[in-house]
Specification:
With about 350 residues, this protein is an alpha+beta fold. It folds into two domains: about 220 residues, Endonuclease I-creI (Roll); about 90 residues, no CATH class. It binds zinc ion (ZN). The site of zinc ion has 7 residues, from helix 2 and helix 7.
Length: about 350
């Protein structure tokens, strides 16, 4: 099952709950029909038609049961068009009343063609319902190895803008490890590329990017299990991608360290021979540091500092080695200077 399908399956289960309020059912149906449906006249009849996935159709079916009798149309058909898709068709009598109840008539009359006003200004429970329906109708989620984006294809810019506003108001789910009050899912409007809606090409996308924000959004709209699995898969993909780079960087560091140690050892050996030849008595800490370096050529300065007696810091060891080399250098210059 693809990642978007997993989200849809979990959302469909969440929206099937008998606890869902009627206000939320109304919002779910309004958003499903706005994003995946169209309204047209067929002779004297007004027809509402929507192409829905199996999960979206299950949500639509539950939402239709909540339509008040006065707005309930008489003829509703939901017929399969493939393995997973369904076409929902609602015809007269009663279609006009349902189109009014779901705000479809209002948006058809508005120039911007956004979401109905009662959805845009919905209470917080309904912001969840709106995003559930939006994802079920036209949502997608990137594969963890490919990127970090969740988006909903929208028929108009106003619809995408409305969804971005609703995303900011989604209530956090306290006590859920995938969610935090501090992470606000920040959706933006962006060009749709080749994304399609059942009714034609999308005009814009309402998109959320960033692992934390996507996880928070999915958790808040009722898909916490998929959110957790997706976040884990993202971390695994990230670790796989960065592991070769890290091991490459580690081995480069080790090589650099080894070259520096070999270089220092060669200089130390020469310096000690020079100082010994001149009969110079070295301070004990300098002799100890030199002996440590010569005895353990493979260890880093930090490791040398740890095994020193008494233990010290790598800066101290490096400083003592530098002083010893400088001392040998100054004696060499003095002995070769013209008398
Ligand atoms: Zn509600």
């Amino acid at each position: 099952m693809s990642w978007p399908q997993r989200v849809c399956t979990e959302l469909a289960a969440a929206t099937a709950s008998a606890q869902v309020r009627r206000c939320c059912r109304q919002v779910q149906l309004a958003v499903l029909l706005r994003l995946a449906g169209q309204t047209y006249r067929c002779g004297a009849h007004l027809v509402i038609e929507a192409e829905l996935s199996a999960a979206a159709a299950a949500t639509a079916r539950a939402a239709l049961l909540a339509v008040p009798p006065a707005a309930r149309p008489q003829r509703i058909t939901l017929r399969p068009t493939g393995n997973t898709d369904r076409v929902l068709q609602i015809t007269e009598p009663g279609t006009g009343r349902l189109a009014t109840w779901t705000g479809l008539l209002e948006t058809a009359l508005r120039a911007d063609g956004g979401l109905p006003r009662f959805v845009v200004s919905a209470s917080r429970c309904c912001t969840v319902a709106a995003w559930q329906a939006a994802f079920l109708a036209a949502g997608t989620l990137s594969r963890p190895a490919r990127g970090s984006e969740l988006s909903v294809a929208c028929p108009t810019t106003a619809t995408a803008l409305a969804l971005t506003g609703l995303a900011r108001r989604l209530p956090a789910t306290p006590g859920n490890p995938g969610d935090s009050e501090n992470v606000v899912p920040h959706a933006t409007v962006r060009p749709p590329g080749r994304r399609m809606l059942p009714t034609g090409p999308a005009a814009e996308l309402a998109a959320v990017s960033g692992d934390e924000e996507i996880t928070a959004l999915l958790t808040r709209i009722g898909a916490p299990a998929t959110a957790a699995d997706w976040a884990t898969a993202r971390r695994t993909a990230h670790a796989r991608r960065t592991a070769p780079m890290l091991s490459g960087a580690c081995s480069q560091n080790r090589q650099r360290q080894h070259r520096a140690a070999t270089d220092t050892i060669a200089k130390l050996q020469t310096a000690l021979e020079v100082l010994d030849g001149l009969g110079v008595t070295l301070p004990q800490p300098l002799t100890d540091a030199a002996q440590l370096r010569l005895a353990h050529p493979a260890l880093s300065l930090e490791q040398l500092a740890q095994i020193a007696d008494p233990p010290t810091t790598k800066d101290t060891i490096a400083g003592r080695l530098r002083r010893l080399l400088a001392l040998a250098g100054s004696h060499t210059n003095n002995s070769t200077a013209p008398q």
